[in-house]
Design goal:
Blueprint (H helix, E strand, L loop, with lengths): L2 H22 L5 H6 L6 H12 L2 H14 L4 H25 L4 H8 L3 H33 L4 H17 L2 H32 L4 H4 L11 H11 L13 H17 L1 H4 L8 H37 L2 H4 L17 H7 L4 E3 L18 H9 L7 E3 L4 H8 L4 H39 L5 H24 L5 H25 L5 H23 L10 H4 L14 H17 L6 H11 L12
Antiparallel strand pairs: 1-2
Length: 601
């Protein structure tokens, strides 16, 4: 069976499975639509949470970011995984005991204010919609490469698939679909990694292969990679940091608290029967997430070495990397490169006209590397590799069997679609339950609320598709904005709502608005207002990264500090919360009587 047929078969079977599960587990009530009836087993919920959390950013982009950044890329591992631990230990059990299945509902009830709930809805919708751009873009990338259609057509197909199982299935259908998607994506991620680790190091565990010696040598994989990339003018793979140490720390913190404030993951803990089950499912989810996150560094390093080995024969054979015959001839480049060139995510430009591919860092400050490149007649780097292709192209680069390539295609789509569904569920609940039911139409029937939820989700799918087709500028900026919004607005409000019984509605509302504003101001100054080119205003804030060298992608943590500071300052000059609210906060934090929680409403 040829490669394209294999891919069609693997992806088609996975889609049929998702739709079949959604039909079987379709929601019949608002409780099933919003929280799967609170009846999901903790282990299954842990797998669904893993799929919900491990988005296209984790599956498709993270290893690519680590491959490009080296050691500095560890901030994504620490930030995203650490954020989940923070969520699981400090927030999820208490929110589950509180018994409200949406973040705005918790904030509205805890801070006894529909205004606070409304602000939380605005923050949630902004964060979720910007975050979903990456998922729809990931769907487009995977479709354009593996199914031979344009990325636009791929996004349309992805919208249709999500519509079928999310709108009709609700949280119940999404949950059981995400269990299947987790199995698909984790097999798609680990199987190629095992093959490649065996090929390079003889060790079947990628986590151990990363620190092992290369097959037939006494040189470790990381030492070999360091030697190759530094000789070609890149930074040392095992020590290069992401900007300053302060920026790396703040960036990690922003990802951590942004993770803990993202509503689509928080909602997952309302699908289990009890608080004890919420804690258990959080632990299982961490195990399932760790499988991918501990594999990612090995995938990144091995893929980077394989790419260099492909275009420069001296990497494997030894000798001078700048020798004329070391760089492969463009006409001899492997088929996988030609296939990815069609997507525009891999580009080759013959700058010196020698018909060979030179892949190196032409902007290096390494004088030795610059001198060698000049002596060899190299006129600039000739290969641009988009970070998003590292995982998807990995099995092709390593010349693995066709069925593995097809599995990776299905896995990439599963990762993007599973998180997109979770985000759409959060958006749907915010509109139908938090806005329509709790604020504008409190007398609406359960049937009417369920219909409103489905209409809201369908509308969100259209908006998400549009944003995926017309991403507002730099993709990494939109993802950073999503985490920044959650970190600077929702996370502090949730933390203070649980752990500060004296925090009042005035403080919480002022804090959310201040954190949101300062973060948007800093990000838009660099990226443009809503990422529209030409609308940036860097001179107004004193140039790029004026706040102690902190990049806009890392600024969410600073926004969170502003949120906390403003909230406590306002709290000091405004009335205390009512007595019953303070008692409620104390009761939520006490384990006694927490075995069973009232129904979702």
């Amino acid at each position: 069976m040829d490669l394209q047929t294999t891919i069609y078969l693997m992806v088609g079977l996975s889609f049929a499975l998702y739709i079949g599960i959604a039909v079987w587990a379709r929601a019949g009530s608002t409780s099933e639509f919003y929280s799967a009836g609170g009846s999901v087993h903790p282990v299954l919920n842990g797998m669904a949470t893993g799929a919900d959390w491990m988005s296209a950013a984790s599956f498709i982009s993270m290893a690519g970011l680590i491959a490009n950044m080296g050691y500095g890329g560890a901030l994504f591992l620490m930030g995203w995984t650490g954020g989940y631990v923070l969520l699981a230990m400090l927030l999820a059990p208490y929110l589950r005991k509180f018994g409200k299945f949406t973040v705005p509902q918790f904030i509205g009830d805890r801070f006894y204010s529909k205004g606070a709930s409304l602000i939380a809805v605005v923050c949630l919708l902004t964060a979720s919609l910007t975050y979903i751009i990456g998922q729809m873009t990931g769907v487009g990338v995977a479709f354009s490469r593996f199914l031979g259609v344009s990325s636009d057509v791929g996004i349309y197909v992805g919208m249709g698939i999500v519509f079928l199982y999310a709108v009709f299935g609700g949280m119940k259908g999404i949950t059981y679909t995400q269990v299947a998607q987790y199995i698909v994506l984790i097999l798609a991620y680990t199987i190629p990694a095992i093959f490649i680790s065996l090929n390079l190091t003889g060790n079947f565990l990628p986590q151990l292969g990363l620190g092992s010696t290369m097959v037939g040598t006494d040189v470790s994989l990381l030492m070999k990679l360091d030697s190759v990339v530094t000789d070609l003018g890149f930074g040392k793979y095992t020590t290069t940091t992401a900007g300053s140490t302060l920026n790396m720390f703040v960036y990690t913190m922003s990802l951590m608290i942004g993770t803990a404030g993202l509503p689509h993951v928080i909602m997952r803990f309302f699908t289990v029967p009890t608080v004890k089950d919420a804690r258990s499912s959080a632990g299982w989810a961490l195990v399932f997430i760790a499988i991918l996150y501990t594999t990612a560094p090995a995938v990144a390093a091995m893929a980077k070495l394989n790419i260099h080995s492909t275009v420069n024969t001296a990497v494997v054979k030894g000798g001078d990397l700048y020798a004329v015959d070391a760089s492969i001839k463009a006409e001899d480049r492997p088929d996988w490169m030609k296939r990815w060139e069609k997507t525009g995510l891999l580009k080759f430009t013959d700058k010196n006209g020698d018909g060979r591919i030179q892949y190196y860092n032409d902007a290096t400050k390494n004088e030795t590397a610059k001198a060698k490149a000049a002596a060899a007649g190299w006129k600039g780097n000739e290969l641009d590799v988009n970070a998003d292709i590292i995982v998807l192209a990995n099995p092709e680069i390593a010349l693995l069997p066709n069925w593995v390539i097809g599995l990776v295609a299905a896995g990439g789509l599963a990762a993007a679609l599973s998180t997109a569904a979770g985000l759409l569920m959060a958006i749907s609940a915010a509109v139908s339950h938090d806005l329509i039911k709790n604020i504008f139409m409190p007398e609406i029937s359960e049937k009417g609320e369920l219909l409103a939820g489905k209409i809201a989700m369908a509308g969100a799918i259209v908006v998400a598709g549009y944003l995926g087709l017309n991403p507002p500028g730099f993709a990494a900026g939109t993802v950073a904005l999503a985490f920044g919004i959650a970190a600077s607005s929702l996370f502090p409000a949730i933390m203070m709502g649980i752990f500060s019984k004296k925090m009042n509605k005035e403080g919480a509302m002022a804090g959310m608005l201040a954190g949101l504003f300062i973060t948007l101001f800093y990000v838009f100054a660099h990226k443009g207002i809503f990422f529209i080119k030409g609308t940036d205003f860097l001179p107004l804030i004193g140039g790029a990264n004026p706040f102690f060298g902190i990049t806009p992608e890392a600024f969410g943590a600073i926004g969170a500090l502003v949120n906390f500071a403003v909230a406590f300052a306002v709290d000091k000059v405004t009335p205390e919360p009512p007595e019953h609210i303070q008692h409620m906060v104390e009761a939520v934090r006490i384990p006694r009587g927490s075995k069973l929680v009232d129904g979702a409403h």
